[in-house]
Automatic annotation (TrEMBL):
Coiled coil: none annotated. The gene is der. This is GTPase Der. It comes from Mesorhizobium australicum. It comes from the Bacteria. Associates with the 50S ribosomal subunit. Belongs to the TRAFAC class TrmE-Era-EngA-EngB-Septin-like GTPase superfamily. EngA (Der) GTPase family. GTP 2 binds at residues 212-219, 259-263, 324-327.
Length: 466
């Protein structure tokens, strides 16, 4: 059972900065203006070996001092309700203010365990403010700097102290813990003119390719996947092999696998190894709807792996990562955590990509891998109605309108999904030439979050209206 942490405090103490630090990306927008309204956000977070959900309440934290209770908005209270633990954030540089006291009362009344986080502790003169923190009656302040990433080991220890080790670290997970929920960063707003991928036809087999560097285990994986099914369906049934693909069935779903065997023979020429496998990878990618990138977990994320991942995104395919040879990993928990972090950092274009540890040799993890393939395929085919999209857009515009450029506001009139496979959206705007990339990214991130478009490329194009 995982748990939820709500980040609470008055405006401008650094809640969003802490949220981003824990989530590992710039999801929420950080703004210097106090009280800038933002959406409440929930996201998977990681603090060293702790994994939990975190809720950012930035933008919801309007205290109303005219009422006796100093009530916060319903949004903040809801966050408190959903939380198992509260990070109550103060600004050590500014010291404790009356607003802090109001918020502290509400946090305390929630009855949830609270950790008092004294942020901006790196700033000159922060010690005084941190000491004032004791007055709030929320226990010992944990000094951190969300902006500079300082003090986080102490925050980790505080979580363990508050929840107990078993709860904080999670139940002993199976060694082959799937990365189902691996958070990843990035988005792709490039190349809206990329070649159209054929429309979805559920009667046709789902096309899959397995790519990766030589020796990553592609052939072994393909054989394991197809061989397993052969056992279930009998030696004769369901498998046909032509020059480029193999058809088989998994969980009642027809599949067609690009046959990578040809690549291996060519790859014998050592000098050309790298070039060849990228080119062959491209053929496989163009064939497929879902592409499994096989990484050798003992030597993951070499340059070529990243080139291949990049190709998949540019071609608009649905990617899934298999961390293969997991049977050789001696410290699965730790390695998993490290690989998760690396994936986040290195593949920012496909936020939320599914990455599954497997052993092609022993067969472990293959079911999880196929589940990830199915789920990613579904996301890749997602279609969101224009009504839902525009209701979402209205909310976004109300809470965080686009910035003014040279004193004139940009207007966003309308959003519609023009394409699936991968999802592509058209945004009707005024002054498309001046439209800031950062705001576009914000919108794409919002779309991803709201409609759960995880792990596949997302395209967004601007259309000028007046
Ligand atoms: P929120 O309104 O509570 O979400 O606060 P933000 O995360 O938007 O941060 C408010 C301001 O404080 C921004 O200008 C941040 O750059 C700044 N800030 C956040 N964390 C730190 C920190 O650790 N040290 C310093 N010096 N500034 C910080
Ligand atoms: P390809 O070049 O990507 O097709 O890689 P192969 O499937 O030929 O595998 C390369 C080598 O890695 C072979 O010696 C396989 O036996 C070995 N291998 C493949 N998968 C695994 C695995 O899950 N665990 C271990 N220990 N070895 C594996």
């Amino acid at each position: 059972m995982s748990y939820t942490v709500a980040i609470v405090g008055r405006p401008n103490v650094g809640k969003s900065t802490l949220f981003n630090r824990l989530v590992g990306k710039r999801l929420a927008l950080v703004d210097d203006t106090p009280g800038v309204t933002r959406d409440r956000r929930r996201h998977e977070a990681k603090l060293y070996d702790l994994y939990f959900d975190v809720i950012d309440t930035a933008g919801l934290e309007v205290a109303d001092r005219s009422s006796l209770a100093g009530r916060m908005t319903a949004g903040t209270e809801k966050a408190l309700e959903e939380a198992d633990l509260i990070f109550f954030v103060i600004d050590s540089k500014a010291g404790v203010t009356p607003d802090d006291r109001t918020f502290a009362d509400v946090a305390r009344r929630s009855g949830k365990p609270v950790i008092l986080v004294a942020n901006k502790a790196e700033a000159r003169g922060a010690e005084g403010g941190m000491l004032e923190g004791w007055e709030l009656g929320l226990g010992e302040p944990v000094p951190i700097s969300a902006e500079h990433g300082l003090g986080l080991p102490d925050l980790r220890d505080a979580v363990i102290a508050a929840l107990g080790e078993e709860r904080a670290l999670g139940e002993d997970e199976e060694e082959l813990d799937p990365l189902d929920d691996a958070p990843l960063i990035g988005e792709d707003i490039a190349d809206p003119d990329a070649e159209e991928i054929p429309a979805y036809d559920p009667t046709k087999p789902m096309r899959i390719a397995v790519i990766g560097r030589p020796n990553a285990g592609k052939s072994t994986l393909i054989n394991a996947l197809i061989g397993e099914e052969r056992l279930l369906t009998g030696p004769e049934a369901g498998i046909t092999r032509d020059s480029i693909s193999v058809e088989w069935e998994y969980a009642g779903r027809k599949l067609k696998m690009f046959d990578t065997a040809g690549m291996r023979r060519k790859a014998k020429v050592q000098e050309k190894l790298e070039v060849l496998s990228v080119q062959d990878g491209l053929r496989a990618i163009r064939f497929a709807e879902v592409v499994i990138i096989v990484l050798d977990a003992t030597i993951p994320f070499e340059k070529q792996d990243l080139q291949l991942a990049d190709l998949i995104v540019r071609e608009g395919r649905a990617p899934v990562i298999a961390f293969n040879k997991w049977d050789l990993i001696e410290t699965p928990q730790q390695t998993l955590a490290e690989l998760r972090e690396k994936t986040e950092r290195l593949l920012p274009q496909v936020r939320g990509i599914q990455a599954v540890p497997v052993s092609a040799e022993t067969g472990r993890g293959l079911d999880k891998l196929m589940q990830a393939v199915m789920a990613t395929h579904e996301t890749w085919n997602i279609r969101i109605s224009t009504g839902r999209l525009n209701r979402w857009l209205e909310g976004v515009l109300a809470h965080h309108p686009p910035p003014a450029i040279a004193g004139r506001r940009l207007k966003i009139k309308y959003i519609t999904q023009a394409k699936t496979r991968p999802p592509g959206f058209v945004l009707s705007v005024t002054r498309s030439d001046a439209f800031p990339q950062s705001y576009l990214r914000y919108l794409i991130n919002g779309l991803r979050e709201t409609f759960s478009i995880r792990g596949v490329p997302v395209r967004m194009v601007l259309r000028e209206t007046d």
